[in-house]
Design brief:
It is built from 1 helix and 7 strands, in the order αβββββββ. The chain has 157 residues and is mostly beta strands.
Length: 157
């Protein structure tokens, strides 16, 4: 596995840039506890991230804000995906960005809103190799009777 990563970097060099994907809501159904959820199938989600910036800082210290500068940022993430099977999945992300601001512009105050689509993305997940151990281990974190420590024990079944 350690040899595969450098080989992939040599074989697939890509230029990357920042995008809205880092803040995306990316549900991983197979990482959630199995509570009646199918590991494959269609899913949709909407997630909201709201951030309010209402102070002015200079070198990590809050300073006076006589012009009332502020920025309210709202990113609504629309997600549609399909876990086709255990080895392949697709997901489509559409972020809708809305910003309301007030800032000094020279001797005037600039106030307004901006909105629009963020970086729309299509993600694909493919499992090339999968290994499952036949042994079952569970961790018991309770107190050990012979000792007074709480070190976890992993009994072999």
């Amino acid at each position: 596995m350690r040899r595969l990563f450098p080989f992939a970097l040599i074989l697939f060099p890509l230029a990357t840039r920042a995008c809205d994907l880092c803040g995306c809501f990316t549900p991983q159904l197979n990482a959630m506890p199995n509570e009646g959820m199918s590991p494959s199938g269609f899913y949709a989600a909407v997630a909201e991230q709201f951030t309010h910036f209402g102070t002015v800082q200079f070198e990590a210290d809050e300073i006076a804000n006589p012009s009332g500068q502020r920025l309210d940022s709202s990113i609504t993430q629309f997600v549609v995906g399909d876990d086709i099977n255990e080895r392949f999945a697709l997901q489509f992300n559409v972020p809708l960005i809305y910003r309301d601001f007030r800032r000094p512009e020279g001797f005037a105050i600039d106030e307004g809103t901006e909105s629009g689509l963020g970086d729309v993305s299509l993600l694909a997940k493919a499992v090339v190799w999968h290994f499952t151990s036949s042994a079952l281990r569970e961790f018991n974190v309770g107190r050990i009777r012979s000792r007074s420590s709480t070190n976890p024990i992993a009994p072999h079944h």
